[in-house]
Structures are given as structure tokens and as C-alpha cells.
Description:
The complex is a heterotrimer.
Chain A: H1 2-29, H2 34-39, H3 46-55, H4 62-74, H5 88-123, H6 128-142, H7 145-159, H8 182-188, H9 192-229, H10 232-239, H11 244-271, H12 275-280, H13 286-295, H14 299-327
Helix pairs in contact in A: 1-14, 5-6, 5-9, 5-11, 5-14, 6-9, 7-9, 8-9, 9-11, 11-14, 13-14
Chain B: H1 8-30, H2 63-69, H3 72-99, H4 101-116, H5 119-130, H6 134-145, H7 147-161, H8 164-171, H9 176-212, H10 224-232, H11 239-267
Helix pairs in contact in B: 1-3, 1-11, 3-4, 3-6, 3-7, 3-9, 4-7, 5-6, 7-9, 8-9, 9-10, 9-11, 10-11
Chain C: H1 2-24, E1 26-31, H2 48-57, E2 62-64, E3 70-72, E4 75-81, E5 85-90, H3 104-115, H4 124-130, E6 131-138, E7 141-146, H5 153-157, H6 165-178, E8 186-192, E9 195-200, E10 213-218, H7 222-230, E11 236-237, E12 252-257, E13 261-267, H8 277-285, H9 289-296, E14 301-303, H10 326-333, E15 340-344, H11 349-361, E16 366-370, H12 373-381, E17 387-393, H13 399-407, H14 423-433, H15 438-455, E18 458-460, E19 462-464, E20 466-471, E21 474-475, E22 491-492
Parallel strand pairs in C: 1-10, 1-11, 15-16, 15-17
Antiparallel strand pairs in C: 2-3, 4-5, 5-7, 6-7, 8-9, 9-10, 11-20, 12-20, 13-17, 13-18, 14-19, 21-22
Helix pairs in contact in C: 8-10, 13-14, 14-15
Keywords (chain B): Cell membrane, Membrane, Peptide transport, Protein transport, Transmembrane, Transmembrane helix, Transport
Protein name (chain B): ABC transporter permease
Main location (chain B): membrane
Amino acid sequence: MLKLILYRFGQAVVVLLFVSAIVFFLIRLTPGDPVDIFLGEQNVSPEQRQAYRRALGLDQSIFVQYLNFLWNAVQGDLGQSIYERASVSSLVFNAFLATAELAVVGVLIAVAMGVPAALVAAMNHNRLSDRFLSAGALLGFSIPTFWLGIILILGLSVHLGLFPTGGRIGGDVALQKITGFVILDSILTGNLRALGSGLLHIALPALTIAVALAASVMQVLRGSLIAVKEEEFIYALRSRGLTQDVIYRHMLRNAAPPTVIILGVKLGGLLGGAIITESVFSWPGLGRLIIDAIRARDYPLVQGGVLLMAMAFVIVSLITDIIHILLDPRIRDGREGK
Amino acid sequence: MIIRRFPAGAWIAALVCAVFVFVGVFGSWLAPKDPNFQNLLTRLLPPFSPGHPLGTDALGRDVLSRLIAGAQVPLIVSMTAVPLSILIGVAVGLISGYVGGAVDAILMRLTDAWLAFPFILLAIAFVAVLGPGIENLIIALVASHWAIYVRLVRGQVLSLREREFVTSARMLGVSDVRIAVQHILPAVWPSVIIVATLEVGVVIVTEASLSFLGLGVSAAQPTWGAMLSEGRAYISSAWWLATLPGIVISIVVLAINYLGNILRDLLDPRSSVAMVA
Amino acid sequence: MKVASLIIGAIAAIGIGSSALAQQSRLVVGQSDKPALINPLQVPAGGRETRAIKRQIFDALVVQGNSLQPQPQLAKSWEVKDGTVWTFHLRDDVTFHNGEPFDAEAAKFNLDMIIAPDSKSAWHSQLSSLIEKVEVIGPYTLQVTTFKPAPTLLVILAFQEMVAPKYYMEKGPEGFEAAPVGTGPFKFVSRDGSTVTLARNENYWGGAPQISELVFKTIPEVSSRIAALKAGEIHIADRIPNDLTDELTGKVKPAVASGTRIYFLGMNVDQDPFKDPEVRRAVSKAIDRDLMVSALYKGQARPLNQPAFPEMFGYQASIEGVTYDPEAAKAVLSSVTTPIRIDVRQADLMLAQATQGFLSQAGLKAEVQVVEDSAFNDSIQSGRSQAYVSSWGVAEGDLDAILYRHFWSGRGATSRYTNYENPELDELFAAARGTTDQNERLALYAKVIEILNNDAPWAPLVNPSEVYGVSANLSGWEPQSTGLYFMTTATLK
């Protein structure tokens, strides 16, 4: 068991190595010189440009640069952002917190929507409510996320004025930073205004992410529930006269594993940046940071950001795998992959 | 016999898909007006305006014609990117699962690394490197979507590999390649097809997202994603510019996913490959 | 119990009241792009947005008004002798935010830092090629000697913000960036990512501002910026597309300043079909700029009949210049068989599409290609694009700036653009640079404009006005064409 986990861990490291190599070389293949972009429309002499290139280490061979990058990264130094003049780690980490907050709230909403829907659908298998909910799930899955975001903004922000159109918190709200999570911090500091503002701002983007997620959750859980429902031990429980709620709990517990796995996979993907949603809602998360960094050819920032993204994905996958193994003893014995 | 089991919805979905394909192929002849014809004097007309049933956009171009013409790129892109992704992904999965050992380990780690990137980011990077244009867009989409099939195929190959009919074929001296292609591949196809149909929808949405970010094909070609992007700034004054293309995309993707679901029920009702793309 | 609740109520009321008061003198500006470095002596110096912030914290010797001509700021007056010796008489009542006095020594320090060989300033190459030496003649008298007559010196000096010398030497560039000190109407308080907070400088020589706190935020998405303005989260929103000015209703209104950007269609003279100046001229004639202005910019732009706008020095007010003549254009263009591809950045897409529309109507096979920002810059700077729509900001307000970067044959390999070169133009350019006599320069520029209109490497398009969204509670502020914010008289209700 421990051996399996260690093995997985080793795999994760190799994966990260590959990721770092891919992004490193890929970004340098893109046309456009970071120094030129950095200097913009200014009239800078060629000597000054060369000096900058040297200062940023861009004049060395690409392999040397890669080795330097790896060496520093292992020690925890992801370098300095070319454009922002701040350490990549701090920029990336703060952006990551924003994305993580969005992802977590999105998942919570998705679960809150998807689990009851799945339960109702499964218990009314093949009847009208089931068909209706399944169709709803299909719709939720098919709507392009970014369009959903735009429509929500159009309806709820612009026309009804209920929600703000973007950003993480109101511009005139001051919030003390403790954990970096707006909602947590406002609760911890008792700042009701910040809490209200933060919740209003996160509502639409989280809802946008949650819809597709809820659709997946609903679909998978419904399938598992339908399978479990027919199993013997449920009849046994019912014949013993247990109330419906207790029976539901048993069913859910048994039907959970595939859903948990799907959620884990999706969460890992979300941590990778709900990029388009962040773009639509101007959410200051990792996805947006990386897109801006790609546009500015800010190599260190792109590398650091993608690396963190991959790390988050890998860690979440790892944890999901471990949970899966724990939940299902049948898998502990050598079955590989999905 | 099987046909009678289809729910009514399936026929509607199939119709929608057929319309999509038809419009995508013949769009240029179907559009009532030239989708690229600008008339700066008739900008931002709302739907139901005379001569423009769905209104005009910021440059006075007819929205209906653009919606029709906008089907071409998503169709072409999805119909090429998905088969190409399958080709590469299934090949890698087959090789990885069948050969096993070190080859398997390396290929799987590479695939995992590839999967750790969000699709959009990979697509953006490829478009940035290769430049705009429909061929590059297809390459970018293939590059970001091939990895999905690998795990799927590999898992099945691993279990099939040990089955009797394979081991006996090997003992009879049948070459590995023949075994892989003639015996294992057919067993793997159903799940690949199921995922592929879902992927078509994903590819269409990804293409729209890229166009939305300004990284799609040239602006000469109207695509639904680009229309969404252009319409976004006018969201409060000309709502139809941002809503109509989105509705169209949703309907098409919905139809495709619905058919995909039915396909899955037919081929393998107990498959857990539901909506995981 | 009752007394307690009364007291609590009173405290709450005072709290709300005072926070309301404090809030009222807090002005928030929402900008479309984030600031780069605030330190004037380092790159990246950033664009308009950064400059807007810098000019709150710092002053320069001179400042541009709406006419783009330099006006006195830290320098009260100046004179030029023999064309190369500039004597500046500086104000004697100015102190830096940290108490250091501003005097000729401080000014000399700043200019020396820029022209020093190891300088990291954005203006190093321009100033060091102009200025021979900087001397202190009296406590408030500065003398600048140039190698040759330098007519553009004053305008360039408008961009050189003054930092506190002792403070700068103590803190070093990084320390200075973290806590910059200047002589401006607002003092630096903090910077959180792209949000910069400033506080009123009570001792400002130009009179203390009415606003006590000034905040600059970055809201890149225009719809979010407008929404934030309407919600009262910000009081000024910059870069509102002219198309969306109708959105500014209710508690907000538009405020317009004339712009300093020239939008143009660049044609690569080394590639077909643009090798032939006849074709280039025809392309220019095919474009209905008045329609563009009225349709795309709701009238808030100026059609350009030359590669200059009225406030620019060198602008020829009395010529006819480039005109809209679709018949003449069609006569030439309908026989052109080479298709053209117009590269454009995402941000300028609509203008490019409108341009392409006109060209298509004139019989030219034209299509628009959106190119990602960095790749676009790469392509035009190396002179690879066949045609492109882009813009150039001429904050300097002098035709020299455009010639230097786009048309002078000595402009270098990273500024190829249209690959246009003309020895006659070079001579005129050098001559105009070589004299401080503005009349002489104007005459020379008249010839330059004639050449540029005739050779048409550019088809000039429009010069849009800059539209700002402004809260109805704000008064005492007018937008400037330079993009700077003169805030000392601004008040919030």
C-alpha cells in the first residue's frame, strides 16, 4: 500500500519534470521577444536592449537557461517576473489562492445542485422527473462556459443590477489579508462588508463553473445510485424498516466512489485555472495571470504559473487516487489506471 | 427493431446535427446576404429589422448570414481535429498498453504531463507559436485533445492483452501488429467512439473559446466564437450579438451530446464513461 | 439600556458619517492597463496609465497642456542662446515629499542620471544624443548645453520627472520604486499589485488638492470598467470606446479630450502590390474617413488627411491632403490582382475590418488577419507584414517623433515597419532637427507632409478623441489630450 503511494509520488515528479520541459521550450518557440515587449514603444538603443537581455539571462543557450531554471526551481526560486518586477512565486501563489477559492466555491455549489438532483432522478428512474433532470444535466454540460458567464452578466449584473460584473471584491472595500482567501479573511476579521462584497463577487463566476460540474456530478452519481438501488442490501435495509433518509445515506455512501473520482479530476482541472471564466469575470486567478504572461512573453511567469498549475493537478489526482484506493479495496491489488 | 427504441428526442437531435453539417458545408450559398458585407450606415440594428431578421453587428453585417456562414469553421475543425486526435491517441494507447514495460512507463508519464495542462492553455500556446489560420488551429486542437484517448485505450489493451484469444494467437505465431490491429483494436473502438462524440462538442467549444480570445482563424471567416467575442463589448446595448451565437453553439453541442449519450446506451450501457471529457 | 443603544446609535452615525466624509474626498480612477514601474529613471516606463500616476507623484521642468506645447512647471522660464545653450530659471518654492529642497542641483542630478552611460532610463538614448552637459549656474538656475540645436529638447524634458536626489541615492532603484518621492500634488502611499494609492500633498507648490486620497485601479475589461463607474466604485474610467458612450447615462457622463493617436494603414513598399505608389495613393483614396468617424466613433474622432493631427507641430492646416475619391480609387485598384492581407491586433480589429470593407468595395481583394499582440509587433517591426492597421501615439506633439521611428532611413532594424526610405525626406528630417527656429521647421515639415502624402506609405485613417467616463459627482476636472490627470482642483460631492 505504501509502496503504491510512493510509486505514484515518483510518477508525479516525473510528470512535473516533463511539464516544466514542455512549457519551457514551448513558450520560447513563440515569436516575440520579451525584452521588446517589456520596453514597449520606447526609443531604446540596441545596446540597452542587449544589456537587458543579459540581465535577464536571455542571452545564454536555451539548454543552459533550462538547467538554471530547474536548479533554481528545486530550491524554491521560480525567478522574477520580467514585466511585473516581483517574484514569480508570490505572484503565482496569490493568483492561485484566487483560483482555488473560486474552484472550491464552484465545487460546493455543484455538489449542492448535483447531489439532490441525482438522488431525485435515481429514485424516479425513467419517470418524468428523471427525464427532466437528465435533460437539464445534458443542457448544463453542453452550454459553453464562457457564454454562460456572459449571459449571467447580461441578465443578473447589467439588467437586474444584482451582482457586480467582475473582480474579486468591491474596489472601495478594505480587507485585511490573513489567509489570502477573501471569504475566510472577512469571516476571521469580522468584516461583514467585505464578506458581503466577496460573496456577491464570487457568486456569478462560481455559478458559471458549477453548472457544467453539477451536470457531470449529477450524471455519474445518478448512474451509480441506480446501480446501487437495486442491490440486495438496500432491500434488506428497507425490510428492516429503516427510514428513507437513512437508506439514502447508505446508498450515497456506496454510490460515492466514481463521483468522488470525477470531482477530483475536475477539481484538479479547475485548479489549473478556469481560464475562460476568469477572463470573462476579470477574476484575478492563475489562468488569467498565465494568459497575460503568455501575451507579454513573460517567460519566468509562464513557467512558474504552469508549473504550479500542473503541481496542483498532480497533487489533486494523487489524493483522488489515494482516496479511490482507500474506498475500494478491490483496487488495492495491482489494477492500473482507469 | 433497434430504431423503434429511439426516443423522440433522438430524432430532433439527429436533425439538428444534420442541419449543422448541411449548413456548414453549403453555408456560403445559403446565407441570404454576404456575411462580410459591411454597411457602416446600418450598424447595430436589432432583430426583426427590415432586411435583417436577426439584426446587424457593429459593422453593419447581417447577423443571420454570419451565423450561417459561421458554421463552416466549427464543422471543418471538429471533423478534422477529432479523427486526427483519435488517430494519435489510440495509436499511443495501443503501443503503450501492448508493448508495456519501459515504453509504457515513459509514454504514460508523457501523456500525464500533457494532460496536466489545461486544454485551453495548450491551444493558446500552439496558436501563439504557429500563428493564426485554420490549419494551425486544427493542429492546436489536436495537440490539446489527443491525450484523452490514450488512457482509455491503454487500460483496455492491458486487460485484453492477457486474454486467451490473444495469447493463443501469439502462440500460433501471428505477428504482434496483426494482433493489435485485428483483434484488440475492434474491442476498443466502442469506448473510443463514445468519447469521440463527446469530444466533438468539446472541440467546437474550444474553437469558439479560442476565437473568443482572439486566437482563432483569420477575421475574414466569421465563426461563432469570434461573433461572441465581438459582441461582448455591446452586451448592454446590442444583446443579440452576444446571445444568438451562444444559443446556436449550445443547441448544436447539445444535440451532439444527446446523440452521444444514446450511442453510449446502445454500445455499452454500463460504461462509466459518462460526460467526463 | 436605552442610553446604551442611543450611544451605540450615535457612534454608528458618527462612524457612518465620517466614513462618508472620508469617502467623499477619495477619488478612484479606473484604468484600462496596469502601471509598469513608477520610478522615472527605470524601464519599463509604461504607457499613458503609468504616466498618469507618475505625474501625480512627480513634476517635471515643463508640462504639456492641451495644445501639447510645453508650459512651465518646475521651470518658471527659459531662454536659448546660440541655439545650443538653454538656461532654465527654476521655481524656488518647491520641496520634495521628504523635505529635500528642489533646486538646480536636484535638477542636474536627475538629468545626469538619464544621460549617464549606464542609465536604465527609457529616454537615455534620446537625451544623451542631444545633451552635451548640464551645469548649475545659480541655486535655481540650470544650464543645459546641447551638441547641436535641439528643437525637441523642451518636449522631451516634459517627460523627465524629477526624483529626490539624496533619497534616491540612499534607497537605490528598488527601494525607490517601493516608496517613490517627488514634488507632485500627491504623495505615494502604497501599491498593491496594480492598485496604487496616493495621499494629498499638503505642501504642494501649486496649491494643495481638494481630494485627500487618490487611487488608481486597473480594470482591463471595458464592460467591467463601465460597470464599476456606474456602481460608484470608481469615479473616472479611461479609454471608453467611442461606440459605448451611450452607456454613460444616469449618474455618469462622458468627458472628451482630443486624442494623440494616429491610426493608419501601413503598406509595405517592398511587397506587391504596394511597390507602386499609384496603388498606395489609390488605397488611401478608397477610404471614406468621414463615414468611419461618424459610424465607428460617433463623430468623436477627426478624419486625417495627413499623417498628423492639428495639435502636432508640423501639421499643415491649409492643405487638402488625402481625400476620399472612390471612383479614382476603383480605376486603379480594380486592376490589381494581388490579394492583400491586413494584419491587425485584436484591439484594432473593427477599424481594420471597416478599412477592408472600403478596399473591397474599390475592387481590391483584401482580408483581415488578427495576429496575437507580440507576434504582431514582431511582424511589423521586422517589416514582414504586407499591410497592417495600427496606431502611433504622438504624445510629444511633434512630427519628428513619427519620422524618427517610421520613415527616417536610419531608424534601425527593429523599426522596419513599411520599409519606406527616401533620401529627400532624410535631408528634410535632419534639417528640421538642426534648427530651433520654429518657422523654419514648419516650412520644412510642409515639404515632408507633401512627400508623405504623395508617396503614401501610410494611408492615414483617424485620430480618435479620448472618451472618459466620469461620475456626476466629480467637478473641477477636465480630461487632457496628454492623458495626464490634473487633479488639484477636482472635488467630489
